[in-house]
Amino acid sequence: MEAWVEEAVVAADRYAMDRLKLMCQSILGKYLDVETVATSLALADQHNCTRLKDVCIEFIRSLDQVDAMVATEGYVNLKRSCPSVLADLFEKTSRKMVLSTVL
Questions:
Q1: Which Pfam family, just one, is annotated for this protein (predicted)?
Q2: What is the residue extent of each domain of the chain?
Q3: Which of 42, 61, 98, 103 has the most CB atoms around it within 10 Å of its CB?
């Protein structure tokens, strides 16, 4: 199911079909797991899907198995194709850690 949704995101972004793009982001966000989150995050970054990007980052921040996610092919591709996303992820995770120690 995921492959056609990813293709729909690309087409929706290319042809400015905002409603379709939002629907696809919602679908992808509901089915995130350790294996798919890095790929979905790269897709979100490359096609300006801010909602999906936020959901992916939140998923990773709450993930107990970060080592498993880092070992995926999707993470390798994310690191290569979207290094700025890793900086965003680090900054948001750092803020969460600081806020949790302050509160």
A1: BACK_BPM_SPOP
A2: 2-102
A3: 42
pLDDT at 102 over 60: no
Instruction: Tell me what the pLDDT averaged over the chain comes to.
Output: 90
Fold of 2-102: 1.25.40
Which residue is associated with the tokens 């969460």? 96
Contact criterion met (CB below 8 Å) for 33 and 45: no
Q: What is the secondary structure of 8-48 as a DSSP string? A: HHHHHHHTT-HHHHHHHHHHHHHT--TTTHHHHHHHHHHTT
pLDDT tens column, 60-96? 988 888 888 999 999 999 999 999 998 888 888 776 6
Tokens linked to 62: 């709450």
